[in-house]
Specification:
By secondary structure, the chain is mainly β. The protein contains one helix and five strands.
């Protein structure tokens, strides 16, 4: 299932490096984790449990950079399947 364009807009932003962000968007709970540059690279979507984990889907972002720079040339979110914890 492709990601919603509204969610992709949130995931294109830069955040604090190596942090976890928990949100509720489009009727679902989301958690994303950023890399050392503050770019979201792991995403969990589903229903949050009492312990904070998410039962749902896990996505991982592949990033291709412009050679010789940190600028993103292109990126792609790939569904890695079902999860029961985040």
């Amino acid at each position: 299932m492709p990601l919603n364009p509204k969610l992709l807009k949130v995931l294109e932003k830069i955040y604090e490096p190596q942090e976890r962000y928990d949100q509720r968007m489009l009727g679902k709970d989301t958690t994303f984790i950023t890399n050392e540059r503050g770019e979201p690279v792991t995403l969990y979507i589903g229903k949050r449990r009492e312990d904070g984990s998410i039962a749902g889907e896990r996505y991982v972002r592949s990033i291709v950079r412009v050679p010789g720079s940190f600028e993103i040339e292109k990126s792609h979110w790939e569904n890695k399947g079902k999860v029961t914890r985040s």
